[in-house]
Amino acid sequence: MSAIRLLVLGAVRQHGRAHGYQVRNDLEFWGAHEWSNAKPGSIYHALKQLAKQDLLLAHEVAPSTVGGPPRVEYEITDRGTEEYLTLLRQALTSYDQKMDMLSAALGFMVDLPRDEAVALLRERITRLEQWRGSVTEYYTPQDGPEQLGHIGEIMNMWLHSADSEADWTHNLIARIESGAYVFAGEGDPFVGVLADGEPNPFATGSHPEDLR
Fold this sequence. Notes:
With 212 residues, the chain is mainly alpha-helical. The protein is built from eight helices and four strands, in the order αβαααββαααβα.
């Protein structure tokens, strides 16, 4: 799975309709360029590809103020919404992927009902425990990594990572169940985007596509 796909679909959906620079600005404001492949070129490429796949609808609006081609605004389609929610659910449950997918999913988890988000996170813990169980069939953590020579440090690192992630997920579930955050159907959502004209303290500079 690609984090940029989930991020771009989610960002466009959050606006209803947005041009590329708005999407890029949102993702940079969230720091996505630091923990994922959401660089300017990747964002603009993803927008165009998702439009070709009928997951986004491209609207040409007024020409840019510098006399260039018409600015394009994107709107998520029904197919795009279906793809977005599928990616979001997969990212919340799958443990065997890069952290950028989980990071992206956390940014959009409130688009799901609270109970569903909790259920998906519980499934993530179950999968982590199953993976850990399969590893410890031939690697005994209490015997230490030395039992496999220095190569055992690889297994030791992954087991510690699995334990840490499971513990973190349990804590997240507890916060959600105690009422943290506003999930789908519960009222006005948290607005995690910049207002029009508001400066972005994390902006990475201009890009040729910004005026498109």
